[in-house]
Design a protein that fits this description.
The protein is an alpha+beta fold. The chain has a domain of 42 residues. The protein has a three-stranded antiparallel sheet, with helices on one face. It has a two-stranded antiparallel ribbon with strand order 1-2. The longest helix is centred in the middle third of the chain and has 22 residues.
């Protein structure tokens, strides 16, 4: 979760009365957060439900497979690994030409589909245009 996402989440929890946020006089940039009585009661109520859902979802793996999956997932989510992947993706994107996508492709596809075309075979589309069940449409702009 990003810092901005975390901040918004805390603000929503404060608005719901589940969390308190305090600013300290020694450093105005420093904020501390904590659960309210209502927040603590909600955690106590939800904890057994979360554990039960966890057991139900991961139960078919058994303890050994669950242990290893958790270990592998933690390794994938390590900060260094995430930073490496962000740099790698950025480098890959610099090395290729990404096609521009027309934001009005769905509207254009719907309009084109509503017009009869005597020269075209039923269900065919123009070059570079893709429509799937009339829901998703992508039109590559050259």
């Amino acid at each position: 979760m990003s810092k901005g996402g975390g901040s918004k989440l805390v603000s929503r929890l404060v608005a719901k009365g589940l969390v308190i946020k305090e600013t300290h006089d020694f450093d105005r940039r420093f904020r501390s957060i904590g659960l309210t009585r209502q927040g603590r009661e909600l955690v106590v109520f939800l904890a057994p439900l979360v554990r039960a859902a966890d057991r139900e979802f991961f139960g078919s793996l058994g303890n050994n497979r669950r242990f290893w999956m958790t270990k592998w997932m933690k390794r994938l989510l390590e900060t260094d690994r995430i930073q490496h992947m962000a740099q790698w993706v950025s480098l890959q994107l610099k090395q290729i030409t990404v096609p521009r996508v027309d934001p009005d492709a769905a509207a254009k596809a719907a309009w084109a589909a509503s017009r009869p075309s005597p020269a075209a075979a039923p269900g065919s589309r123009g070059a570079g245009e893709l429509t799937i069940s009339g829901v998703i449409a992508v039109h590559i702009v050259s």
